[in-house]
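Exam prep: given the inputs below (a chain plus magnesium ion), describe the expected output before reading on.
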Amino acid sequence: MPRTSKTTAHASPPRLPEACTRFPLLPLFPCPVIKAILTDIEGTTSSIDFVKDVLFPYARQRLPAFVETHGDTPEVQHWLHEAAKEAGLVSATRQEIIDLLVGWIDADRKSTALKALQGMIWKDGYASGEYRAHVYPEVAACLRRWKDAGKTLYVYSSGSVPAQKLFFGYSEAGDLTPLFSGYFDTETGPKREAASYARIAQAIGAEPASILFLSDIVAELDAARAAGLRTTLLARAPATCPADGEHRCVADFDAIDAD
Ligand SMILES: [Mg+2]
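Solution:
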């Protein structure tokens, strides 16, 4: 029996009036109050350069000494073994595994073992005060103001959830982790797919139209909007807002309308 159009309509995710995302200042459509704010990190709360210029070179530089010093702890041993297995090495010296891992860093290889080891090295660097995660100067105050106004705050970044927690735990503005109610990474799904945002809305337990997503990447905002979320594009200097952009666009957090 063919499905009725009514059934089909119920099967698709709830859509808010397009005006809420495209022209939210027009008073013609009642848009739901924003209850939750979901933010990207790189290019949005923080400079892309910090990860590229500080974190990745630090892990590359420290990896040999880290493996030498911690190579006998069960957790490190586990990931070294996993890396060797991934490379198809039956028996490898510690130095061979170090060379392998450094090569993977240079090739930007997406390896779970490498990611885990990098995470441990970054944790050491944060904890010993080697660096602090960059956040743009107005970000912490805005996050606090939104939280004080009763909004819940979430992070969605391609960096792993443990890396996100370290990032905001040791930021230039201090420990910001108490401000966030949850973290999402690509385990939830790719950032340019609408289904990921539908899953996040479900996990947050809020209707998509009451969630505001902040990002510097238009393709991510397009995906979020397709799932019914509200969107704002961050165009941090020297970037500028596109002339015919389809998302609200601001230069910094102070200009975000989160009501
Ligand atoms: Mg970004």
